[in-house]
Amino acid sequence: MTARDNVVVSGAELEAARFLLARMGITPEQLLAEPSTPPPTRSMPTFAEYIDRVSGVVTAGTRRVYDTYWKRVRHVWGDRRIDEPTPLEIKQLAEQTKRTAVARRNSRGGRTAAEHLISSLRCLYKYAAADGLIAEGDNPATRVGKPRRLASTRRAIPEARIAEIIAVAQTTGNDPDLDSLLLRLHMETACRRGGALALRPCDLDSAQCLVRLREKGETVRWQPVSPALMRQLLRHGEERGTGDPRDQLLRYRNGQPITARRYDYLWRRIGKQLSWVAVQQVSTHWLRHTTLTWVERHFGYAVARAYAGHEGKNDAGTTSTYVRADVYEVAAALAALTGEPHPLAVPTASVGMAGRQTRDPHADA
Predict the structure, then answer these.
(1) Does the fold of domain 176-311+319-338 match that of domain 47-143?
(2) Which is nearest to 282 in space by CA: 145, 139, 152?
(3) What would the pLDDT profile of 91-113 be if each residue is shown by its tens digit?
(4) Model pTM?
């Protein structure tokens, strides 16, 4: 007999217990019944299993960036459960990845490889937390800091140097027409390589001289181009295309679509002719810097931001919500850049808050 067996329960306590059970919807018989079998726990997948699941649901861009690092994780930890590695082990793997990173033309000592390795694991664990396999606070990858990013070495290229690049592209190589078109497309639109490679004939609005750019983050925007560039793009599609408006636009003479390798070949060729291109590791993204710098200096930050296709909330402060530029202002900037009229480039008048055109106080000075 326990001490509790000698306790006398009052009628008031019994009544309170009955009231509480009634409110909970529980009968005395249920308390006497055998406890039910707990639901089966979900088995924890291995990295090899879970990488396959996550790879099938992320965007193509995410898969392209992380696939190399997921393969490395699969090779090292493929048979381990995803909840086993500690933050220290993840840090060790990131450092190993940094040391063994392939030295490329624009290599930064493996820092980017280590960063992507940690980001790829954070992506896996984010889905694991959403699936209820781990708690949000048990994500070990978030407790491993990414390497600090170094300042970019890219900058705007002077006009004379741009002319040198164009001259080499137009007079060397096995397809100067294609390379000249690529350079002009990137200089006019400031698009990324992915945006150019994703272009299709159905993305060309010849009436308004607009191209539809689909770039990273699944962003889509209509970007103005000059009438001359639009004619080049249409002629390129007619001469080298398949006839299907949804096939890739940019192609070799034999009709095969180009890939990122064309850019690598182009800049290696230019670097052999222009030593400063090879030494400073100039790439297509430098053209984006060049165009956007020019637009910002002549038309302001809001137009440059729209020209770049930056729509994220983190690209600027809250003020950017109210000073967002539109496609007509981008077209005006393009017209000034190329010296060629654009159908959407409408001259902007200075208009007061009441809708009346304001007068320049210095006009008669």
Answers:
(1) no
(2) 152
(3) 999 999 988 876 555 555 678 88
(4) 0.71
Q: For residue 326, report the phi and psi dihedrals to the nearest 5 degrees.
A: -110, 180
Q: Indicate the CATH number for domain 176-311+319-338.
A: 1.10.443.10
Q: 312 with 298: CB under 8 angstroms? A: no
Which residues have C-beta within 8 Å of that of residue 79, sequence separation ≥ 6?
46, 47, 48
Question: Could you tell me if 134 and 128 are in contact, meaning their C-beta atoms sit under 8 angstroms apart?
Answer: yes
User: 47-143 — its CATH code?
Assistant: 1.10.150
Q: Is 220 helix (H, G, I), strand (E, B) or coil?
A: strand
For 83, residues 6+ apart whose C-beta sits below 8 A from its C-beta are 44, 128, 133, 134, 138
User: Between vectors from CA 95 to CA 94 and to CA 100, what angle results, nearest 5°?
Assistant: 100
Q: Are 194 and 61 in contact (CB under 8 A)?
A: yes
pLDDT in tens, 134-170: 998 889 999 998 888 766 778 899 999 999 999 999 9
Q: How many residues does the chain have?
A: 365
- Amino acid (one-letter) located at 144: V
* Helices (H), ranges, the chain: 11-24, 28-32, 47-55, 60-77, 87-99, 111-130, 159-171, 176-189, 193-197, 227-240, 260-273, 275-279, 284-299, 301-308, 327-338
Q: Where are the domains of the chain?
A: 47-143, 176-311+319-338
* Structure token digits, residue 273: 């002719």
